[in-house]
Amino acid sequence: MRFEVDESKCTLCGACVLTCPADMVREKRGAIKISWVACIGCGHCQAICPEGAISLTECDYPGAFAPLPDEVASPQALLSLLRRRRTVRRYRPDPVPRETLEQLLQAAQYVPTGANCQCQEFTVLTAPRAINDLRQGVMDYYRAYAEALADHEHPERLAAFGGTGIGAMHEHILAAVPSFVKNVDAGRDRLFFDAPAVILVHARRDEVLPEAACSFATLAIVLIAEAVGLGTCITAYASLALQALPELRAAAGVPDGHEVHHVVVVGYPAEVYQAVPPRRPVRATWL
């Protein structure tokens, strides 16, 4: 993005200077100057200007500044939304309209991202065959994993499945793999729960803090889903398998060079919760 300043409107209030995270907006000889050298394109300078003196002259993607929405969720309403949200593992077969799924993705556009990289991308699976192909690929991986876990005479088989860093299996998930595979092989879809839509949240590996961007986007998706009457489940089994299997990522439509950070199951809940479970007390250090 590049911006210019209309000096006839500018009052030199300095709001744009103070808000710029990259220190690219400065007052020089009685005028505001905006440099693009290290500008991250966040648009804070134009968004904060009370006189409308700053305008967007160049943008890498379609779009324009819009008026700030007047409606603001009350703290209680937002807290209620967070408390209502539950992980759903039973879904009705009804398909979710594309326009409703697009609402979820639109919400995910507005989350914080490192250096305004806006790197979060999505692959949305709604075709039964596409979902089933992904399910089969993930389950083939975990069947082999379960076999390696059971083969105590050849520990090298298990070593081939994990390590440290992204894609490594947490011990809690690792312990549940055999039971997970048995349930699925018995006909219970414990991966996608027969939901009608699956969203893969991914980003290029060379972006700025891509995992954080994808995590924030995932939270936005599950909260808006709750607000429109949908249920969600963030399934780590799928994302961990996709991180380990480049061929499966490609088959699922994920671009080369991208990492899948989260997989979100979406659908209309076939279960109704009546209460909010307790949470651990807030753990905070005050200094």
CATH architecture level-2 label of the largest domain: 3-Layer(aba) Sandwich
Termini separation comes to 40 Å
Largest sheet: 4 strands, antiparallel
Apparent shape: elongated
Which percent band covers the strand fraction? 15-25%
Number of E strands? 8
Global Rg: 23 Å
In CATH terms, the superfamily of the largest domain is NADH Oxidase
How many individual domains?
A: 2
In CATH, the topology of the largest domain is named NADH Oxidase
Secondary structural class = alpha+beta
Task: Give an overview of the whole structure.
The protein is α+β, with helices and mostly antiparallel strands. It has 2 domains: 57 residues, Alpha-Beta Plaits; 193 residues, NADH Oxidase, CATH 3.40.109. Helix 4 crosses helix 8. The chain is elongated and about 75 Å long. The model has no long low-confidence stretch (mean pLDDT 93).
Short précis:
Helices cover 37% and strands 15% of the residues.
